[in-house]
Known about the structure:
Chain A is mainly α. Chain A is built from 13 helices and 2 strands. Chain A has a two-stranded antiparallel ribbon with strand order 1-2. The relative contact order of chain A is 0.15. Chain B is an all-alpha fold. Chain B starts with a helix and ends with a helix. At the A-B interface, α1, α2, α4, α5 and α6 of A face α1, α3, α4, α5 and α6 of B.
Amino acid sequence: xxxxxxxxxxxxxxxxxxxxxxxxxxxxxxxxxxxxxxxxxxxxxxxxxxxxxxxxxxxxxxxxxxxxxxxxxxxxxxxxxxxxxxxxxxxxxxxxxxxxxxxxxxxxxxxxxxxxxxxxxxxxxxxxxxxxxxxxxxxxxxxxxxxxxxxxxxxxxxxxxxxxxxxxxxxxxxxxxxxxxxxxxxxxxxxxxxxxxxxxxxxxxxxxxxxxxxxxxxxxxxxxxxxxxxxxxxxxxxxxxxxxxxxxxxxxxxxxxxxxxxxxxxxxxxxxxxxxxxxxxxxxxxx
Amino acid sequence: xxxxxxxxxxxxxxxxxxxxxxxxxxxxxxxxxxxxxxxxxxxxxxxxxxxxxxxxxxxxxxxxxxxxxxxxxxxxxxxxxxxxxxxxxxxxxxxxxxxxxxxxxxxxxxxxxxxxxxxxxxxxxxxxxxxxxxxxxxxxxxxxxxxxxxxxxxxxxxxxxxxxxxxxxxxxxxxxxxxxxxxxxxxxxxxxxxxxxxxxxxxxxxxxxxxxxxxxxxxxxxxxxxxxxxxxxxxxxxxxxxxxxxxxxxxxxxxxxxxxxxxxxxxxxxxxxxxxxxxxxx
Lengths: 287, 282
């Protein structure tokens, strides 16, 4: 009887173990189930590279190029800001900060990661948006730039914590060897630690960017949501994620609009899947 | 030749600057919200329903809604996540299946939150016909926080020394009994940390509940798991972008309550973790 009970429990544990695989597959299947239907009315290339996103006009124009470019623009802006700052902060925490400061900084970074994106979006709306508007004398501060700055802050915790881990896991004798040769601390960091931790840092940057592409609420609140081809970083844009979040509420289940939003979901899923798998390869690369 | 110490001083200055560029704005965000939000929070604000088109009154239904959603999510995610962690630490061999499971967890953690919303809509709301309801929202949030629970529980289980298991097994105790009576009790603080972090994440997310549960305005409390509810993060989104002329105080107050809730949970998690690390006898 006990044997039987344990047999059942172990099977249950196995089932939970593979549940993650099950859920990933399930997410993909349901996105595909609802999303692929859009290609009955619009061709794949038209969907991906069409210049017009007018989902509720008659007939609807379902080209997501403006949205893709919006996402790319905001993401590049966020990466330019967050990568140097994030990696710099990681080096500071891992190498320079005294132990007590280090603990406090790490807790602070953790708290930043915990702030809900809708709260950051709200703060961005009331502080950053008017600031951008005044500095650049724009008709509106709801621009790609505002989004980039805010998103940079959401990418930083990811970048800092993973890059810091990577630096931390560099074998101690690398550093000691460099010191023994008379290198300064900075020379050691620059020539030894950073190269040795490079694959982890690349992974950190990729995961940070993945976070930016997938971020929804803050972006929806402060980028202005104009689904047009962006000409500069100082105009309103609309990202893939914000489009789904803003329009799904009004889309009728089973309409072309509904299918198109799910197709955007497939695009987002595929992007995040590729980023995560590549980052994972970098993280587990044996030096 | 350049003086290497001078280069070092310049470099360290920039690294410090980078750190400050993260820390100072974060501090500012928290300070702004506390400073402007705290005065708006009083008992009426916390216990009253929103009135006059959400331009007055309180946020009670949103607090209750978030409470229901978060409880539901953890009820779903904790057992599955914990057992998955047990599988990975105690049973999994170093093979392809384990590698794929780990990759799946990483991917689950990386799926954009709005995609979870789409998934919840397609599976729970439409396919299972749960409708927009607490059930759909909780399950969606539950799947979203699964990776957090698995990863932290796994760390907790792995930190229990192998010798504990060996002694137990050598006494003729079965594997499951060892896990149940030796490994799990020693890992409880770590598991608790993960659970609280998961709770905090579920409480703050908006995109997954947009189409699966969140109600724009619904002053009465839910009667069953098939009802819609208001939720704090969605309520903050609504009053800051969808409803014009909402008093600043109400917006900041709502942001404060949400932020305080999430940061408080994270703080508890951090405290439990550091206490546990200090107390560890092995």
